[in-house]
Amino acid sequence: TFFVSPDYLSVGNDQDWARVSLTAKGAAKALSMLDCFAPTPRLVDLIYQQASSKLVPVPLYAHRDSTPVMWHHHLIIEGQRKQQKGLIAGIKKDIVFVNDKGDSVLANRVGIYGWHKPDARPIQPFYQGHVWWYADYSHGLRLVSRQLKVGRTWTTIEALLRDSTMRASLF
After folding, report:
1. Would you give the distance in Å from CA 139 to the centre of its chain?
2. Computed from CA positions of residues 170, 155, 95, 71, in that sequence, does the dihedral angle turn out positive or negative?
3. pLDDT tens for residues 115-133?
4. Burial of 31 (C-beta count, 10 Å sphere; 0-12/13-18/19+)
5. Where do the domains of the chain lie?
6. Which of 50, 167, 19 is nearest to 97 (CA)?
7. What pTM was computed for the model?
8. What are the beta bridge partners of residue 167?
9. What's the start-to-end Cα distance of the chain, in Å?
10. CA–CA distance, 141 with 8 (Å, rounded to integer)
11. Full DSSP string of the chain
12. What percent of the chain has pLDDT over 90?
């Protein structure tokens, strides 16, 4: 059992907040500080399957890496969400972990995946073409706890990655 944040990383308080897009290195720093890891593409699919709020992706095309567009996209999502609670999915391309160290950065690139359509197919297949410093409105960081359960036993992502059989369940 994996424990994930119900929504993507955001800043603010309960009354005034926004989802934020981070560079790969910014995401890696946040994950380290929060003792979490980013999901793999397989986990992104499982999160989408379990989500109680499956929203429709809304692609935007101009000034994708600007703060006003990131804010505009946040407002579009909130308009769709209409105060629905619970696990939300379909609204962002996940920054994904792409190696067995749990890093989001590999060869100075950011890994992204997801943005599921209502038929559960992702718009964005696994892609690692952006440089590490790139971020745009469509990227989001989902937090996954490093602590997880296998059956009734608590373990860590590091232990899971050391076990070749269990590791296969992540990828």
Report:
1. 8
2. positive
3. 999 999 999 999 988 888 8
4. buried
5. 10-167
6. 167
7. 0.90
8. none
9. 15
10. 5
11. ---B-SS--EEE-SSSEEE----HHHHHHHHHHTTEEPPPHHHHHHHHHH-SEEPPP----SSTTSHHHHHHHHHHHHHHHTT--S-EESSSEEE---STT--SEETTEEEEEEEE-TTS-EEEEEEEEEETT---TTEE---EESEEEETTEEEEHHHHHHSHHHHTTT-
12. 64
Burial of 113 (0-12, 13-18, 19+ CB in 10 A): buried
> What span, in angstroms and rounded, lies between the C-alpha atoms of 40 and 166?
14
Q: HSE, CB side, 13 Å, CA atoms: give it for residue 70.
A: 16
37 Cβ neighbours under 8 A, 6+ residues apart = 31, 97, 102, 144, 146, 157
